[in-house]
């Protein structure tokens, strides 16, 4: 009888299974690394989302024939080790094309127009107390006429490109970093960064794409440009992004992925979390919800209006982890009451094969 094990059922709590062959099924809410070997020892099929399978894991499961991922990304699986072990790895393609593309577009709009800043001003009574019909707070920019550079021309990237063109944006497809030649329809990597008002990352994470956006690449971008990452944590060097926001080179960043991709409770911040007033919230669909900050604290806060990040009580690592956008945008806070620091009143000058039917498991070759 086929033995099926679901290692992190809590990541897919409302989806029932119906197997049409004789089987023995076991499921676990979550699986820690030290629990993995015992749980997969007799498994023929493993279902998982974010559990890491390295060479040692395959050695611990001699009967294993199939890993069925309940997600699109597969960077948690050692594919060469899977091939050597004769294990087929499948993922789910195209299930989030529209959802993720809309999420990226939402963050672009929110950052360019500083929507959360104005929402907080309205909640604080700043607009109501303005001397005339409107409140001039954070800078507002339009998408129309701007340039969007996309890295990753898969389903999500192409869907977002369609949305962006509908808003009147010029869309560029960025060539791979370090590519010896430029493919037809693509723009050289450095040139694509330099022309972009918004850069959006939709690449798989591998040795070639890890930290494809770092300090040097951020310096290539226009001052005040916006960076979106809904691909994988690690595509951008998070510390370099934080520095670029702090010093105004980057106008804003929208991330729903961080390093490591794990539950917030398994990411203890560097420094005492009790000293902060940051609250990670639940996930919404594919993407994580926004963190919340106390409006008025004794220490300085990051400034939303143009990406400046002021001094914070937490270490940089903790600050980035809890203020980076999960569902909305980064930075998540600015000085309120409509009074901005003077400098903040201006904005600084493949998937490996094509998908089959939407939502179906497809072997990774």
Explained architecture:
Helix content is 24%, strand content 16%. It is α/β, with parallel strands linked by helices and 365 residues long. Helix 6 links the parallel strand 6 and strand 7. The longest helix is centred in the first third of the chain and has 17 residues, at 97-113. The radius of gyration is 22 Å and the shape is globular. It starts with a strand and ends with a strand. 41% of the residues are buried.
End-to-end Cα distance, whole Å, is: 27 Å
The largest sheet is: 6 strands, mixed
- Gyration radius over CA: 22 Å
What's the helical proportion of residues?
10-25%
The quaternary state of the protein chains shown equals single chain
Morphology: globular
Helix-strand topology string: EEHEHEHEHHEHEHEHEHEEEEEHE
Count of runs of 4 or more consecutive helical residues: 10
What is the averaged pLDDT score? Answer: 77
- Read across the widest sheet, the strand sequence of neighbours is 2-1-3-4-5-15
- Decide which structural class fits the backbone: alpha/beta
The low-confidence runs, each spanning 5 or more residues with pLDDT under 50, are 261-357
Number of E-type strands: 15
**How much of the sequence is in beta strands?**
15-25%
């Amino acid at each position: 009888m086929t033995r099926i094990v679901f290692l992190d059922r809590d990541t897919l709590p409302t989806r029932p299974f119906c197997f049409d062959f004789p089987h023995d099924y076991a499921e676990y809410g979550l699986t820690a690394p030290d629990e993995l070997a015992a749980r997969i020892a007799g498994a023929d099929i493993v279902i998982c989302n974010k559990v890491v399978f390295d060479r040692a894991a395959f050695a611990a499961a001699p009967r294993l024939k199939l890993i069925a991922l309940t997600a699109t990304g597969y960077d948690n699986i050692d594919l060469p080790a899977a091939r050597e072990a004769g294990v087929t790895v499948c993922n789910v393609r195209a299930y989030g094309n529209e959802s993720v593309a809309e999420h990226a577009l939402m963050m672009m709009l929110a950052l360019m127009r500083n929507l959360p800043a104005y929402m907080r001003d309205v909640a604080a009574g700043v607009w109501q107390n303005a001397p005339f019909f409107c409140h001039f707070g954070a800078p507002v920019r339009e998408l129309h006429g701007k340039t969007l550079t996309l890295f990753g021309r898969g389903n999500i990237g192409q869907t977002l490109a369609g949305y962006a063109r509908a808003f009147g944006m010029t869309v560029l497809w960025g060539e791979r970093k370090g590519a010896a030649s430029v493919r037809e329809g693509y723009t050289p990597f450095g040139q694509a960064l330099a022309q972009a008002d918004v850069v959006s990352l939709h690449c798989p994470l591998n040795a070639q794409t890890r930290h494809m956006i770092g300090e040097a690449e951020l310096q290539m971008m226009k001052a005040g440009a916006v960076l979106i990452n809904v691909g994988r944590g690690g595509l951008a060097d998070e510390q370099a992004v934080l520095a670029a926001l702090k010093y105004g080179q980057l106008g804003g960043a929208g991330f729903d992925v961080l390093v490591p991709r794990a539950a917030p409770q398994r990411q203890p911040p560097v420094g005492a979390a009790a000293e902060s007033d940051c609250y990670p919230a639940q996930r919404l669909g594919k993407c994580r919800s926004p963190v919340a900050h106390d409006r008025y604290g004794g220490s300085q806060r990051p400034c939303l209006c143009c990406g400046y990040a002021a001094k914070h009580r937490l270490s940089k690592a903790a600050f980035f982890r809890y203020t980076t956008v999960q569902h909305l945008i980064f930075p998540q806070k600015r000085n309120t009451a409509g009074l901005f620091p003077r400098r903040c009143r201006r904005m600084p000058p493949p998937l490996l094969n094509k998908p089959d039917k939407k939502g179906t498991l497809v072997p990774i070759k």
